[in-house]
Fold this sequence. Notes:
- It is a single chain.
- The chain is mostly beta strands.
- Helices cover 0% and strands 56% of the residues.
- The strands form three sheets. Strands 1-6-15-8-9-10-11 form a seven-stranded antiparallel beta sheet, with no helix packed on it. The protein has a seven-stranded antiparallel beta sheet with strand order 2-3-16-7-12-13-14, with no helix packed on it. A two-stranded antiparallel ribbon has the order 4-5.
- It starts with 8 loop residues before the first strand and ends in an 11-residue tail after the last strand.
Amino acid sequence: MDIDFNNGKWLNEPTSWHADATGLTLTTGEKTDFWRETYYGFTRDSGHFLAFPTADSFTAQIRVQGEFRTLYDQAGLMVRLDEKRWVKTGVEFTDGEAFLSTVVTDGKSDWSVSQPFKELEDFHIRVTVAAGALRIQASSDGSRWPLLRLAPLPIADRYEVGPTACTPERSGLTVQFSEFSIGAAITTDLHDLS
């Protein structure tokens, strides 16, 4: 089911954003981020997140478009239980390149990056939550969905999911989100790329 972006609830609403029938466009604020403790020693919960409630299992996917150029520029999907338990996944700019990135946080954050494809100014990201597992897939074309990450996620009666964007080192990144849907958790085999 396609989602109307105007029905979401902001955590850290950006100063500049617009939603209509075709999508959501936002511009990030100064030094926004989500992170908890690991390596850097700080906790940040200032990133932009437009939250939509879900059931105890679901699949959500979204198309992300932007020009990611500065260290740690990032955008994608977030799944959140509370400020200590959440996942963000999508693009993140690091070491001079855009990577697909996932941060899984349960008290403390971990971070992984990969490049199953290199064109990351226009891509799709999908998350599936079911039975204590989080499955993350990415697609360059919306048709072929290789696995990006499989991680444990605390079991809950409900979650929040939606678009997220952060710029820890600056402000002013404009991101377009479209083709956002939330539905029943997909049950395809882990290595099924459809």
